[in-house]
Amino acid sequence: MDGHMYVRGSAFGARRLYRATVEGLTVCADRARTLAHLTDAVLDPARVAARLAAPCLPHPLADAAMWTGVETVEPGHALRVAPDGRAYTTVWWRPPPAHLPMADAAGLLREALQAAVALRVRPGRVLAADLSGGMDSTSLCFLAAEAGADLVTSTQHWNSPGNQDHHYARFAADRLPRVEPLVFTSADLPACFTGLDERREPLEEPSGLLRDRARHCHTAGALRARGAELRLSGHGGDHAVEPPAAYLHTLWRRSPLTALRVTNGFRARGRWSLPAAARMLLGAGSYPAWLTGAAARLRECAWTNPGPDSWGPRPALPPWASDQAVDLVATVLRRAAEDTEPLDPDPGRHAWLHQMREAGRGAALLHEASITHELPMDSPFCDDAVLTACLTVRPHEAGHPWAYKPLLAAAMEGLVPEHILHRTTKDHCGPDWYLGLRTHRRHLSDIADTSHLAAAGLADQELLRRALISPDLNTGGAPEVENTLGAEAWLRDLAAHPAPAHLVHLHHPHEEHPVDTTAH
To answer: Residue 162: is its pLDDT beyond 90?
Structure first.
């Protein structure tokens, strides 16, 4: 463009871009690992340690690449390189004002979702879709049917007592045209965490996808056997249509009575303590101050004090994180506090934007992992237009304690059966999770004995062993264990695959020189 190179990803990180400098030249790629390999970059131990934190990392740590010298081009920004080699970034996306009443925003969301799903429908092509029974995946299935798709759906019937997902999934499947529903019981599928001892091409960063990797592979094979070429996931729906409660801080200034009523509802439903609710309404403080405070509280369990944090979820490291890991992450947080601006001056707006970026990052990892299953997975809720439409709604109308996902329910009215739109429950896979850990206890013990995290000084080996062998005793819940196992597996995958597969040099015996694939 006008002699400048212009390149960007998506607004929320579902398509990502990275940059590095080589001998004064700017090089960019959609994979950080590509740049790390080409520039001989090394892993940043602080960024590895940060991936142990739960429930999530704050901005800007969450988007950081795992290697020194490799930078992430922030979602919503574009990279420009001038003819003289000078590189800089510009903002190409900004959030819309949050001023629309529910009905108007729901109309925009419906249009955006219809376009996003229709984009994936091709005449004569079988489309796979997850049909969990939840509102997100079910909405995508009815939108795909509306667009004329021939569907094959995947439903997992969890072992947990009182599970209702399969009932709602069956109810939906009975009302979908041109659908072949596949139902997988827990007994049909590999146990959670199957494949802990198998090394694979590593993803861009550590992730908690390890838990269901074998199950996704199994269901992908069944869907491919029915002719599916693409799979839709409801991932990102929770992040998109429900704003975090941090919006209450601003609502208190604009409409105190409404804020007080909504806060009392959240307190009753979420068992918030009175001090936590008071901090939310009265004491947000600046974002740099919040980051500095988070650095000082990394050892505090994020789950022991119910209630929202003003700028989003506060990160906490697990008990088995070493003192060195805590120091490294605290230092990164304090440095970020020196020069980081929030995604929006409004704490609630910032928290929602960050929540959406987390969804985009997860969508990118899901898509990357699905390629190895030979059935690409797309997450329409993480499309830029869909997330932008959600941001137009007044937050207190879309996220309150008396209705479940009211924005999506309003958007899907008349298309998705009311029985599903009025659902107020959400199931979990707790029994399957614990069974998977018990089933693979020997592999977990081996991981603890040969831990790469412990070898790097980032984990206490004995405490890690206790956590993996006796997960029932953990106070931090599943995210702590899953994040640690994800980081451990990722480090092992990197050791087993030091060079990205798409950059391995091929040397034919009859060629004088090897083929240089780096140009691609």
So the answer is: no
